[in-house]
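Batch manifest, entry 17 of 40.
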Amino acid sequence: MKIEQNYLEDHQLEVVVETDQESFEKVKYLAAKELAKGKKIPGYRPGKAPYQLIVNHFGEAAIIDHALEHFLDEIYPKILDEIEQEPYGPGQVKEIKTFEPPTFIFNIPLQPEVILGEYRKVRLPFEQSEISKDDVDKILDRMRSQQVSVEIVEHPAEEGNLVDTSLNCRPAESDPGDEESLLLKDQPLPVMIKTKSEDASKEWPFAGFSRQLLGASAGDTLELTHEFSDEESVDEDYRGKEVIYSVSVEGVRERALPELDDDFVKSVSDLETVTELTDQIREELSTQRILEEENTYIDRILETILEDADIKFPPQMLENEIEGEIRELEMQLKSQGMDLEMYLGIQDTDEEGLRDQLKPKAEKRITRGLLIGKISEAEDLAIDPEDVTVEFQSIINNHFGDDEKGRTEYMQSGDSMALLNRVSSQVVTRKTLDFLMAIAKGEDFTGFLKSDDEDEKEQKESDDSSTETSPEITEETPQQELEEKDQSNSDPKQEETE
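Output type: structure tokens
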């Protein structure tokens, strides 16, 4: 078997394999015999017809198609042994060059590769901003607006007032007395009068309509003229026409915000005073601000490290990530009573378009995940197993509560091991990001590294494990008993992970 290897730009290995003719002919012969089983060829019992007669009966193309599956399964492991590369996933036959001699081109995806730069030299400024009085006041105003009351007022309409109106509308060239020409008749319309700075482009029936009502009072009737453009976005009844609106003002209402006092605080929270509410809002905003700014800082750190790193991964890895996102989306949609087809219709796209939308974020997740994993591996950070255990137990407790039966069944299933692995990965990721933040800030990061005592302890445990005595094997030990002992000594957690 002759093999030529070429590295492709998309982190795959192109392998050109030339095999010997004799081996392929043998497989063709066996494939022909398989096809002939159970098939009646005139003059012969099933499976007993000569090879050439089987070829004439089924056609050589059918024989080759049937043989290829077996032949490729036979030679592919040998190819992997020859190339001495660990594939990311199964290779694919890109091309069959010829059958004489049998020559195939495989594309084999390679394991991702990460080459780190000088990430320990990264330094980036970080400043934590303070929560201002305006920040707190915005939250307080939002809380007050949620408790707003609307009251009828006697004064003329002002900015922010709600004006109750009734509309009649007709083309300007129509007869005012012709009711059949009316485009709108006694159409009720409450209108909030916008300020000059607010966007009025989406107002109905036309942009700027609300400010035409400034100064109007209950009982007034206004006549407003508006000429619509001839753009396709305009309704056909109004497109390119000059229209007259007769607006009857039925009343003016005003939004009244509640006073910010202790009574208000008691009505919207478990607190007693304005001071307590203000302090709570400030604390919550501060926690949120710290999280947001740290996430932004981490993004900057990772982008800086990526500039000096080289990361490669095969296209199959990206496809798997996108596929996982779609499956997760389907589960979310199912919980909302929808399916993917309905969602794609709402989004006015197809599955290929959805994949294109998901691709940039999927690439970013893969790249950053590989980078963080490589740094974690390179640094061998000190991870406290207790952190993993506490977080794992917290998730279990929150999910199952007092359901001891459900908890027990879950803990005995493979899902619990998958959750433990995921939690462990999350803890390692957080530790790695905290480590990188300390570096970027110029802080002492030695506390994230394993101490000499921890290294010595791990080495001792490894040595003790490797020197454990195996059960004595004698001539009288049955082979089956040996196999059972081998199985009992295997690590179930390792098997689950694999």
